[in-house]
Automatic annotation (TrEMBL):
Annotated family: Belongs to the acetokinase family.
The protein, known as: Acetate kinase
Lineage of source species: Bacteria, Bacillati, Bacillota, Bacilli, Bacillales
Residues involved in ATP binding: 14, 208-212, 283-285, 331-335
Family matches, as Pfam families: Acetate_kinase
Binding site for substrate: 91
């Protein structure tokens, strides 16, 4: 079965085509600047030169058509025709309390996703545009949606409720939802495979550290707590997001600086984090480089960033009454040896002993970076959210086909 995985943004679209028999990526690419007359489609097939095409792409329906044309292109394509695509899987950021697992798309599912627009106004509407665009181009092909929040629906009320009047939860569903669930789910399963132990018997702390970052306490295969909240702003210090802060900062800043709510929101989401403290960049590589050159602001930004990750790890060890392994994943987590070293340096009390040589190795494979006698394993686990989406889509379509074949 060939499955097309789509991640639609408001003006962009990423895609990967999988052969589920082998789980190989047949092709991948992205469409950027949707809505403009100079949109860019980039298409990649292994062992072939990258293809780049600039054209007018005014909406997502046209973008999907361009993708399908490229996948079936006589010279650059990998399929004979679009009938070779048996299913499409979508990433959807917010599933609210409506979805605790991946589902096949139908009218009710689309209605529920639309109801959640207010909880993820920058993401869910764009994901819906992707779903509708696929319907227009592949009307008879089943679609599935995989939610970033679904994995965290196993959290107990003591983890997901805020200590505010409960009427706000009952009326407006104000609570912790958590994000990066697809990634936390994938790396926890991969870690269990690597360790050769049942996931159901493990206590794991997953650190998805990229431009957006979150930690998750994963108890016996289920999310028990996570750092992001109702939105992706809460929790760790990130590239441009503030993470945790005193809520009173918002009205105080509004009053002192005569800011609007939109301006404060923009400040906390786009002008804070590493960028604000370093004064240089939201990119960890550039911050580390400046720190090594003696920049004090970059050093402070790096130390704050690592310290907050370490604090969350410590709190999750307490929450789960122990930990078997700590996982680093995503762009910064997988590639920044200095950050991993800085975080783990303060975890020796829990039995974490980093191996400097192992930590320095760059690899696309899952690997252990602690010593053989370390009481807690620390792993670097490359995430693969697209593969998990493809696997869930394959399972759902296969199950539906099996049910239909009985009647």
């Amino acid at each position: 079965m060939n499955i097309l995985v789509i991640n639609a943004g408001s003006s962009s679209l990423k895609y990967q085509l999988y052969n589920m028999k082998t789980e190989d990526v047949l092709a991948k690419g992205r469409v950027e600047r949707i809505g403009m007359d100079s949109s860019i489609l980039t298409h990649e097939v292994e062992n072939q030169p990258e293809v780049r095409e600039v054209s007018e792409i005014l909406d997502h329906t046209t973008a999907i058509k361009k993708v399908l044309d490229m996948l079936t292109h006589r010279k650059f394509g990998v399929l004979r025709n679009i009938q070779d695509i048996q299913a499409v899987g979508h990433r959807v950021v917010h599933g609210g309390e409506s979805f605790s697992e991946s589902v096949l798309v139908d009218q009710n599912v689309k209605l529920e996703i639309r109801k959640l627009f207010d909880l993820a106004p920058l993401h869910n509407p764009a994901h819906m545009m992707g779903i509708v665009a696929v319907e227009a181009n592949l009307p008879n092909v089943p679609q599935a949606v995989v939610f970033d929040t679904a994995f965290h629906q196993s959290m107990p009320p003591s983890s997901y409720l805020y200590a505010i009047p409960t009427v706000l939860y009952r009326k407006h569903q104000i609570r912790r939802y958590g994000f990066h669930g697809t990634s936390h789910d994938y790396v926890s399963k991969r870690a269990a495979e690597f360790l050769g132990r049942p996931l159901e018997k493990l206590k794991l702390i997953s650190c998805h550290i990229g431009n957006g970052a979150s930690c998750a306490a994963i108890l016996h295969g289920k999310s028990y707590d996570t750092s992001m909240g109702m939105t992706p702003l809460e929790g760790l210090m990130m590239g441009t997001r503030s993470g945790d802060l005193d809520p009173a900062v918002v009205p105080f800043a509004i009053n002192k600086e005569d800011l609007t709510l939109n301006e404060v929101n923009s400040m906390l989401n786009k002008h804070s984090g590493l960028l604000a403290i370093s004064g240089i960049s939201s990119d960890m590589r550039e911050v580390v480089e400046a720190m090594n050159d003696g920049n004090d602001k970059a050093k402070l930004a790096f130390e704050m960033y690592a310290y907050r990750i370490r604090k969350y790890i410590g709190s999750y060890v307490a929450a789960m009454d122990g930990v078997d392994a700590i996982l680093f994943t995503a762009g910064v987590g997988e590639n920044s040896a200095p950050l991993r070293e800085a975080v783990c340096r303060g975890l020796t009390f829990f039995g974490v002993h980093l191996d400097a040589d192992r930590n320095a190795v760059r690899s696309s494979e899952t690997r252990r970076i602690t010593t053989d006698d370390s009481g807690v394993s620390v792993l670097v686990v490359p995430t693969n959210e697209e593969l998990l989406i493809a696997r869930d889509t394959y399972r759902l379509v296969k199950d539906k086909t099996a049910v239909e074949s009985r009647f």
